[in-house]
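1st attempt posting a full record on here, be nice pls
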Amino acid sequence: MKVSDDAKYKIYVDMKKRGKCPSEDSVHVGFIAWVRHNYPEIGNLLIHPKNEGKRTAQQVSMDKKMGSIAKGASDIIIPGNPSFVCELKREDATQCKWQAGQEDYLNNAADNGCFSCVAFGLDAAKEAFIDWLSTNNNLMSL
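the predicted structure (as tokens):
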């Protein structure tokens, strides 16, 4: 795993985790289920930009015009003050790949006041979320 030296986002990772681990999709589904179960009011705000997947050139063009696709957009975005912007990766950082624009998106989000992070695995994502909650006074009572 290579993270740029000028990263402005937080990194949640246990570098000792190696070997077989759940897929990124499994981490994603588990995290959303955990948030929606434990914090339903926040779970109703949580969105996942659908940047991946196969589409026709015409669909991609229309999705971009409508703002449905943003290059490098993070996996989880929750509006707030600050907003939560989190890129999810597999637990074993050596098995992860960065897509074009993902680090730029995270840095841009951080520059614009968001709680911007990358989380490697479900436990790391939960830790990042709890840290974010502690920065957001409006959500502390949930």
